[in-house]
Amino acid sequence: MGSAVTSMKNRASGSGTVQESVQDLDEMWSIVDSWTPKALPSSSCSHLKGWKTVRVFVSSTFGDFHSEREVLIKQVFPELREWCEARNLCLVECDLRWGIPQDTPSSKILATCLGELDRCKQDTYENPLMVILLGERAGWIPDISEVPSEVVEQYHWIPGMSITGMEILHGAYRNSNPNAAFCFRDPSFLGQLPLQELTQYQETGQKALLMQSLKQHVCHRFTAKQILKYKCKVQGKDCTSGSEKVRLGFSCEFTSWILQFLKTRIIETFPGHTEAFSETEKPSWEQTEETQHQLFLQQRCQLFLGRDLEVQRILEFLQVEFKDSTQQINCVVTEAEGGVKLPCTPVLQIISEPGMGKSSLLAACLMRAVEIPNMSVFYHFTGCCPSSAQLSNLAMRVCCHVLPAGPEREDVMQRLRDCSRNEDLKEVMRQILKSSPVSPNKTLCLFIDAVNQLSNPRDVSDLLSWLTTDGFLPPSCRCVFSSTITNAHSPFSLQLELLSPQSSQELAVKFLSRYSKLLCLMHCSPEGGIERDLCGALSELEGGPDIPPLHWVALRRTLGCLLRLGQDHRGRDTLSFFHGSVVKAIELSLLQTEASRQPYLSSMSSYYEHRCSDDMTVVSQLPRLLQEAKLGERLIHFLRKDPRALCIPAQMRAQYMKVLRCSQVCRDGFPRSPALLCSFCSLKTRAFGQLFLNKQSCVVCGATVMINEREAFLCPQHFRHGVSECLVCKTPILGPNKPSPGLLCNFCGFSQTCITIKL
User: Fold this and answer.
1) How many distinct structural domains can be found in the chain?
2) 680 burial class (0-12, 13-18, 19+ CB within 10 angstroms)?
3) Whole-model pTM?
4) Is 418 part of any domain?
């Protein structure tokens, strides 16, 4: 086989032509059939409860399938996405060769397309969901010299094969993928095309033989239920993309067959998502939280290298018997300051500066710990999701791990929710750990990462104190936690080595600068951004068309060492920074002033306001961004005029408005004038953002005011002396009809200041 490959390489390089590289098609297919692909590691995401991501990879030659791709984007995928969401599945279509500029390097296209196909394979147990469109064109056949050596080796590149053919081989043919849909276009429509258009849809010579051979091998390997042979007809010209292209029309069979095939294969691949979920079947709070921590754990483990000695020491610590003294583990870790003999509290603290790898070390250790017999492992990664930074969240997750599901656990969970003081929380946690059903010969191990990242500084000090207090942890429990803070009460600690010298920081700054736009946009989303939203905001910032998917994927791959790929509670792909030190580096090097942050906040705001199609995401992100960007007029317009803002809670609306209100005091005894509504405006709605009558609405936040209302007032700076005018229409209030007083809800009326909104 080696000599055959060498022979084909020789024909596909140097002065040889493409036709020469495919002279012996039988030889080519014998090489294809002789190679067994290596299995990729399955993504842990496929095994997690709750939402899952479904990726569909679209493969075809580019120039002659724009009509089919248009149908997929506008008809097939929207309906499939709605169907998936009803089953807790998040659809992501991967169509990377849309909009590729002509100057894109060949090596970048090859590595990115096949790498993204690998990502699809990992999510679906090596059988990616694919829609493969084949006509009469072979498409781009790169010269063997254009293919990077690592791509040749990793994907067993076949000289003389097109990029579309390699996608088919890698994603479908070599592993007889049952999730691949092949759509063969009937060539009869070619007779309707003028001669000058034929070259865009039809090959001649050896390339035509290659396409014929590819289709024959597909039909031989795959069953008829995976192959659709469809017809189309010419319907004129399409100029919507800026260049004139032939527009093709299809029967409804094309869309219905692809939809049905994908739905069937999705059900087969994700059997737990067969039926649409009712509200009672949605993932529980516990499952949603566990998913976030599992994703974080998997990513940290993938990036862990070295530190074998530290792993060994921590695992030894977990298995040591704490009975009489600390001497028996002095060889394992360092005793607390001065070697003083402290009570045998089984707690180990891992200490280092930010970015040293504490989280990855903990992840690697706990993955080893779960394999130790008679050991129950709980882990909590502070910062892996917004809720993880709350001490109460940690306590509730410990409760769910220790106590079996049932009335007792529900009772304890309610007690935790009702705790208003940390001391109450401590007592409930102590009782949970003490009453743990773990048998005497079984050890409960608690791994808590980044204690210092808890949202409240008081929570940090309290948790550190609890963990190192005698009696808080039962004898059968071990705890390993990481922090940037040295806790003097911790009996055992492990200090990680320092980071590399300052020169590495300068290198990092240069690296960050190359990708400053995306990194700065991500900085505007402190809790992580949805991938498609970040991509859209980047297009908004650059003022051009949508970024080609290939470029976006390549950008994400390049920045992979700085980013954490995750999924939100709805299974959508998210990007966030891998560590707080990355955030700090971006602030110091790229966003030193408020002015430097302004264009990124503005671009993110414009994307969510005008282009984002998910209303829930718009409501959660847009007001915050407009407020941070100091775009008060747009914020008020959104809160009061945009129908999407109707679902924002009144108290949250009031918080946004409070920042924009005039600060002049309007209490009794201060100069002021009542805010009034004319008889006409008082009986209308939506002046202040809600659907209630204006006279029954808070004139600031729009909440309904039925009881305990307070009158609204204007300061001397904002009312016309001697003239009463309507707060809404600004016309003077004249005539016999009595005006209605402007009212404030309890929250907005508490400050007793002028109700004018300063823009």
Assistant:
1) 4
2) middle
3) 0.54
4) yes
